[in-house]
Write a structure and sequence with these properties.
Layout: H1 2-9, E1 20-24, E2 27-31, H2 45-55, E3 62-67, E4 70-74, H3 76-92, H4 97-105, H5 107-116, H6 119-127, H7 130-135, H8 140-143, E5 147-150, E6 155-158, E7 166-172, E8 178-184, E9 188-194, H9 202-216, H10 226-234, H11 241-252, H12 257-262, E10 267-272, E11 282-285, E12 288-291, E13 294-296, H13 298-312, E14 322-329, E15 333-340, E16 349-354, H14 362-367, H15 373-384, E17 388-393, H16 399-406, E18 416-420, H17 427-432, E19 437-441, H18 454-463, E20 467-471, H19 478-487, E21 492-500, H20 504-514, H21 519-522, E22 527-536, E23 539-553, E24 556-566, E25 569-572, H22 582-587, H23 594-613, H24 619-653
Helix pairs in contact: 1-4, 2-3, 2-4, 3-4, 4-5, 5-6, 9-10, 9-11, 10-11, 15-23, 18-19
């Protein structure tokens, strides 16, 4: 059999190409650097024949060809077609040499010919899988559609758009790449990335590959500027050094194709599902989860895992197979990364969640419809006047976003201690506006890298002096310490945190029953704000669903809604207007009446509406506006005190 196949393969001077195939585990790697066909299997019959020849000896899950700094990965049905062609050529060679030769070069036609040749030969096509794979392939352009990427990249991108896709939108990304949104009949939308590296000519791609090899070999010094130095070392006159440096930086110091995807303002999440070689990367685009034309390789996923271990200082291995960390993309963007690996998943897998270019404020949440001005005014005054509040909701509902926005409502004079295991709250932005904020990083597990347990962090925070306490998430034994501190007033200011739950009753059950906090301690909570995500007419949106005050009664804790969501609009229940709110009574200062608090809420609502109307919702603008308001309040207070003293002095003179 081997001699017969060798005779078929050697049939003619043009029977071979310059490709050099070699197996690497379940992957057939093909060096096409010296081949005129460049390893383009959809275009070159000779390259196809070389690959099919290799697959007559052994199957492979994927075929990867490399030339001129570019890799083309043939996976799924493309790999299945090539493997089936190899099996068919081997099985049919002793019956029909010409058909075996055709299967090497043109397996689609060979399948059609086999179907017309009778039951024995068509049976071989069916048994080897060639008939089934070839039946759904209209042409090699679709049947052998590769995932393509520069050799420097860990990810691979399908070169051609979906054959049956209708173009809906074209998007230009900040990274220099482009994206297109297609719609496929019966399959919905798909996100198609066009990397900036695709615009490079052959010389530029070769230069990029040479710079990468130099960098990988440690041929340049200086960690921070190494990519640029590597490019300049191998560049010729006319080489686009800046562009190549940016691409090399993105793929060696950044997140590669993930950086491109997250640079789209409409993409909030990127999902890489294990095993990454077999699953397309997906994105949350305008609230809809779409497949992309991008796939990570196992090597790329392993490199990302190593990068996150170094950046976070936390273990990520079989012994500690989960990871939660934050990472920087570009100069000023932060993403939250959640990862899993063996043995809880089939290899490395990640979810990247964009935390936004700039933190949101309460005026910004009013502007985007998360909550109306009157409810926002209540939360603003409550936080400013040292309430104890919990923000409840499911994962992805926007709890942390709302908590971060509320931190801007604290007085700049308030010392704030923020406790998180994965930094997500806008501590850096608050510090930039001269706030006194101390961040404490915790580890859920004492062995999980740097940081202390949440309980130890909370006790530490209470020793750092009076001020506001902010917990990224209330979920463990630290809840008992927190509520004991709240009960005795140890914080001296606002206490805020997020918790999983769906409304006040659910939160009480979680805190009291699950976290073993006495109900009498839970009663010191002032309010519970519930947020939720839902699909609206313009896509996925987040809304405050309910604002509840906590009532401490003789028969136990109860809840009363101050605002509730009706037909997509958060509306007051009338409890405040009727003078029934216990929360407003708690917020009153000495000498203030219930009417004074209502007047304060009205003024705060007008202020928020004005900031939204004037598009002054960014942190710097909000900090400035609040500073002016607080200065005016101090001046008015001094003037009133001066008038009171003058009146007393006048009475004394009489």
């Amino acid at each position: 059999m081997r001699k017969l196949l060798d005779r078929i393969r050697g049939g003619g001077d043009d029977g071979y190409c310059g490709c050099r195939p070699a197996f690497d585990g379940e992957t057939l790697r093909v060096d096409a650097g010296d081949c005129a066909g460049a390893g383009k299997l959809a275009e070159s019959e000779k390259c196809r024949a070389t690959v099919v020849d290799a697959l007559t000896e052994r199957d492979a899950e994927r075929v990867v060809t490399r030339t001129d700094g570019v890799e083309r990965a043939y996976e799924d049905r493309a790999a299945a077609l090539l493997v089936a062609a190899g099996r068919f050529a081997e099985r049919i060679a002793f019956r029909d040499e010409r058909l075996a030769e055709r299967a090497r070069r043109d397996p689609l036609r060979a399948s059609r010919d086999a179907d017309a040749r009778g039951s024995q030969i068509s049976g071989v096509a069916a048994e080897t899988g060639l008939a089934a794979v070839a039946e759904s392939a209209a042409s090699y352009e679709t049947a052998l559609r590769p995932y393509v990427g520069p050799t420097v990249a860990g990810a691979r991108v399908a070169a051609r758009p979906p054959a049956d896709g209708r173009l809906l939108d074209t998007r230009s990304l900040d990274t220099g790449s482009d994206a297109r949104i297609y719609e496929r009949p019966g399959a919905g939308r798909t996100y198609h990335l066009l990397p900036a590296s695709w615009r490079l000519d052959a010389d530029a791609r070769a230069t990029l590959a040479a710079a990468y090899r130099l960098l990988a070999a440690g041929g340049v010094d200086g960690e921070d500027r190494a990519p640029g130095r590597a490019v300049r070392r191998v560049a010729d006159e006319g080489t686009p050094v800046t562009e190549l440096t940016e691409i090399l930086e993105k793929h060696t110091r950044g997140f590669g194709a993930v950086s491109d995807l997250l640079s789209d303002p409409a993409v909030s999440d990127v999902f890489a599902t294990a095993p990454v070689d077999d699953n397309p990367v997906r994105v949350l685009f305008d609230g809809d989860r779409l497949p992309t034309n991008v796939r990570l390789t196992e090597q790329d996923a392993a490199a990302l895992a190593s990068r996150f271990r170094r950046a976070s200082g936390r273990a990520f291995s079989r012994a500690s197979p989960t990871l939660a960390a934050s990472a920087e993309i570009g100069d000023d963007r932060t993403v939250r990364v959640a990862g899993v690996t063996d043995p809880v998943s089939d290899g490395d897998a990640f979810v990247f969640r964009d935390q936004g270019d700039e933190p949101l404020t309460i005026p910004a949440l009013v502007a985007n419809g998360t909550l109306p001005p009157d409810a926002a005014a209540l939360l603003s005054v409550a936080v400013e006047r040292s309430c104890a509040g919990l923000i409840a909701g499911t994962r992805g509902a926007g709890k942390t976003t709302l908590l971060g926005a509320l931190l801007w409502e604290l007085s700049p004079a308030t010392r704030t201690v923020v406790i998180e295991d994965t930094p997500e709250l806008p501590v850096g932005a608050l510090l930039d506006t001269d706030r006194d904020v101390q961040q404490l990083t915790t580890a859920v597990d004492a062995d999980d890298g740097p940081g202390i347990t949440p309980t130890a962090a909370l006790r530490t925070a209470l020793r750092l002096g009076e001020g506001a306490l902010v917990l990224g998430e209330v979920r463990g034994e630290e809840a008992q310490v927190l509520y004991e501190a709240m009960r005795v007033g140890a914080s001296g200011s606002a206490v805020l945190g997020t918790i999983h739950g769906d409304g006040g009753a659910s939160v009480r059950e979680r805190v009291v029953a699950d976290l073993d906090v006495p109900e009498s301690s839970f009663a010191v909570t002032d309010l519970v704000v519930t947020v939720a995500a839902y699909e609206g007419p313009e896509g996925r949106a987040r809304r405050v669903e309910r604002v509840e005050e906590v009532l401490d009664r003789e028969d136990g804790v109860a809840f009363a809604s101050l605002f509730e969501l009706h037909d997509g609009i958060l509306e007051p229940t009338g409890r405040i207007g009727r003078g029934e709110s216990r929360l407003l009574d708690r917020l009153r200062r000495s000498g203030e009446s219930y009417a004074d608090i209502r007047k304060l809420l009205s003024d705060r609502e007008a202020e928020l509406e004005r900031l939204v109307t004037e598009s002054r919702t960014r942190p710097a603008d909000v900090a400035t506006a609040y500073g002016v308001r607080r200065r005016d309040e101090r001046d008015a207070l001094r003037e009133n005190e001066h008038s009171d003293r003058a009146e007393v002095d006048g009475e004394a003179g009489k």
